[in-house]
Amino acid sequence: MRSQKISVIIPTLAEKKRVTSVKRCVQSVRKSSTSDIKIIAVVNGNRFDKELCSWLKSQKDITFNYVAKPSLPNAILKGREMVKTPFFSIIDDDDEFLPNAMDTRLTLIEDNAQVDLVVCNGYVNRGQIDKLAFNNLEDVEKDPLKNLLESNWLASCGALFRSDSFTPVFFTDYHTFAEWTWIAFKIAMEKKNIAILDEPTFRINDTPESLSKSLEYKAAYFDLFLRMLEKKPPHEIIKKIKMKMCSAYHAKSVSQLKAGKYRDAVILHFKSIFLPGGLRYLTYSRKFLTPWRFWNQSQ
């Protein structure tokens, strides 16, 4: 057998409802290269289906690992600790690599010894319709940090990492939820050398129950922005982060007001208007000029 060059980490809860998607994901990894790929399945949490775990364990090309902690970024870390190949990739259990995706990525990174990772485009599938995940991906190479503050350019299954450039230590200070925005931020701050492959190599299957739609996921951005500021990015990036915080505080204020939580809403509103870009929300203050709302809440 030829020496394997790529490992693919699949973090999964291995729930019964995901049996079909997990097997589809595994098959897509196999079809993504003409060479053998080392598949590392990291089952995490206690919601796993025993039959699915047995199937994963029975596959000759899959290395199985179980961690009790139910955490996607921690499962990624545990998977990275098991990587012994020169390169690795990561994929969520409900997503897919397109045929020959790994071969295409591998050619690009092997041809460029200074490249730390390849960042790729792909499809997001909603309602059985594929749409390109990223527009203007080629701009990322010029200024990854600035482009990240416009929109995240790193999909969970959208990169091939050079193992020497991304040791397990890189993944230890993970962020729960919004983990790929945090990873992309760290990549940009550490000035990793990025090669862009602006062609589809993956498919993200977006569903109503996708984690990115959860309240916990959206709330994670408040702490994420604070962590970004702690890293002391350039001044113009600090301003952009604070503008993002401003919009997030305003959006949260609106949702709290709709939920009848008026005091929380007004606190969030005042946080928003004192950040860069906050003056555009000043007229929203009139929503809080009805005293009986606050009086009723205190009863």
From TrEMBL:
<feature type="domain" description="Glycosyltransferase 2-like">
    <location>
        <begin position="7"/>
        <end position="128"/>
    </location>
</feature>
<dbReference type="Pfam" id="PF00535">
    <property type="entry name" value="Glycos_transf_2"/>
</dbReference>
<dbReference type="InterPro" id="IPR029044">
    <property type="entry name" value="Nucleotide-diphossugar_trans"/>
</dbReference>
<keyword id="KW-0808">Transferase</keyword>
<dbReference type="GO" id="GO:0016740">
    <property type="term" value="F:transferase activity"/>
</dbReference>
<protein>
    <submittedName>
        <fullName>Glycosyl transferase</fullName>
    </submittedName>
</protein>
<dbReference type="InterPro" id="IPR001173">
    <property type="entry name" value="Glyco_trans_2-like"/>
</dbReference>
